[in-house]
């Protein structure tokens, strides 16, 4: 960024402190069900999985190699990759904004982009948990960094970095295809883009990206295109009677996840891109508008999960670097404050809310004590079994002294040991699940007292406990079951 004036050094110190706080919180909070599930991925490496590509498993595995099979190990790469992604966005913003005589404004705008990005709940809280959004955010930042150097600073070879980021982003989450589609539109629909198409560099970037995505494509080809069909199956959803409700959820979710003031900066950044309409502004605008159109189209037929548009936050933060409103620090600090409120609620629960209103209670509340209680009520040498992937994964992590079985079709896609037909076990079944134990898999032998998962006396969920025998009505039925690796104490 040039110069390195001391007056800007405190922003770097602030980023380091924020990263440290995130690491402490990551070590302290219990794993959510999805995180415990991704831990299983990390211990059963593959080129893909039923729900997503493989990169989140790599992220968790790298962290576990450094910090052990612990909550911090699973999450370690989240705060670290967010820190690196912030540096990339700040540098990309400075390169984009810098011109002769505007060095000071470029530095301020670059810092603004990094601070606003971290002020969103999508990044501020999202980096505390390990999800596919964690690696994809880093690779979107790397993509933007490469594009700035290629298209603004004319370093043509940086297109290869763009291809690398595109491929690894696809390996992280399929929503990476949306900003990439915007890039392709820019290449073909604008004059500056078509100038690049006359060179070999975009083709080279595409080749690098294809090489990076080969493991995911190969895994899907060998598993009936399971992951592609699961995610792509949502495209045809159509429910116009609820479209207005879904659209409201989409807008409200983004106002909340970006935080209200930062959302205004994002909208203003998009407006300035349109007002400028120079080559790089149009590139960023294409990378934003096309995904927004896709999300709006999807909201006409089904719910858009609030975290899906988070893939656009680095692009929006870069666009917001040009928004010179003086209250950008207040907007960011409001975001940090809201993240702090959520963390305080998770830690101390000053406000007693039902699990319907308290997402921290619903997701991470009481798992360690619950697993210990279930284990204590089950005779030794009998395995625990669950037909919810998240519940099974939590038991595998927090009841490491027990063998844990997961029974669900998704386990057929994992290279994990299979339980024996006719084995006796103890089934843990959430009261949120309707109906008795699935008779295809379980013969009920006895019923034990219910178990509760609670935090500070507030019940998150109640579970039935059954003594069962595993059934195998057809040869190979237990392909839908797996023995899950426990937490190595």
TrEMBL record:
It is found in: Cell membrane. It holds the Pfam family PMT_2. Keywords: Cell membrane, Glycosyltransferase, Membrane, Transferase, Transmembrane, Transmembrane helix. InterPro entries: LipidA_mod_glycosyltrf_83, RgtA/B/C-like. Coiled coil: none annotated. PANTHER family: MANNOSYLTRANSFERASE YKCB-RELATED, MEMBRANE PROTEIN. This is Glycosyltransferase family 39 protein.
């Amino acid at each position: 960024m040039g110069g390195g004036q001391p007056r800007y050094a405190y922003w770097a110190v602030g980023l380091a402190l924020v990263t440290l706080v995130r690491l402490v919180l990551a070590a302290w909070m219990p794993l959510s069900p999805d995180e415990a599930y991704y831990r299983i991925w990390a211990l059963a490496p593959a080129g893909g999985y039923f729900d997503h590509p493989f990169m989140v498993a790599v992220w968790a595995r790298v962290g576990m190699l450094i910090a052990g099979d612990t909550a911090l190990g699973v999450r370690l790469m989240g705060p670290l990759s967010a820190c690196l992604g912030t540096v990339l966005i700040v540098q990309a913003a400075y390169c984009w904004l810098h011109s002769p005589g505007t060095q000071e404004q470029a530095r301020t705008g670059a810092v603004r982009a990094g601070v606003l990005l971290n002020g969103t709940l999508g990044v501020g809280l999202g980096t505390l948990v390990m999800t596919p959004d964690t690696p994809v955010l880093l690779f979107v930042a790397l993509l933007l960094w490469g594009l700035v150097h290629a298209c603004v600073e004319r370093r043509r070879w940086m297109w290869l970095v763009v291809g690398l980021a595109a491929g690894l982003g696809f390996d992280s989450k399929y929503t990476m295809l949306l900003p990439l589609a915007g890039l392709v539109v820019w290449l073909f629909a604008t004059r500056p883009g078509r100038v690049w198409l006359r060179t070999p560099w975009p083709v080279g970037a595409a080749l690098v990206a294809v090489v990076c995505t080969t493991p995911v494509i190969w895994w899907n080809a060998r598993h009936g295109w399971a992951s592609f069909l699961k995610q792509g199956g949502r495209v045809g959803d159509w429910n116009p009677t609820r479209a207005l409700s879904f659209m409201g959820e989409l807008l409200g979710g983004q106002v909340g996840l970006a935080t209200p003031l930062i959302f205004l900066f994002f909208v203003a950044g998009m407006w300035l891109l349109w007002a400028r309409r120079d080559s790089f502004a149009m590139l960023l605008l294409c990378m934003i508008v096309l995904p927004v159109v896709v999300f709006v189209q999807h909201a006409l037929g089904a719910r858009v999960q609030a975290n899906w548009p988070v893939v656009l936050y680095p692009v929006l933060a870069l666009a917001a670097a040009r928004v010179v409103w003086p209250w950008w620090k207040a907007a960011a600090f409001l975001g940090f404050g809201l993240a702090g409120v959520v963390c305080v609620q998770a830690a101390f629960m000053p406000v007693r809310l039902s699990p319907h209103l308290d997402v921290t209670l619903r997701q991470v509340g009481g798992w360690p004590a619950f697993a210990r209680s279930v284990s204590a009520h089950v005779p030794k040498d009998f395995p625990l079994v669950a037909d919810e992937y998240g519940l099974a994964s939590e038991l595998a992590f927090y009841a490491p002294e027990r063998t844990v079985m997961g029974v669900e079709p998704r386990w057929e896609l994992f290279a994990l040991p299979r339980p024996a037909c006719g084995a006796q076990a103890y089934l843990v079944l959430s009261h949120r699940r309707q109906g008795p134990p699935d008779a295809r898999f379980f013969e009920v032998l006895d019923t034990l007292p219910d178990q509760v998962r609670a935090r500070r006396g507030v019940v998150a969920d109640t579970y039935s406990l059954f003594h069962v025998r595993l059934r195998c009505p057809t040869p190979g039925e237990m392909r839908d079951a797996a023995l899950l690796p426990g937490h190595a104490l």
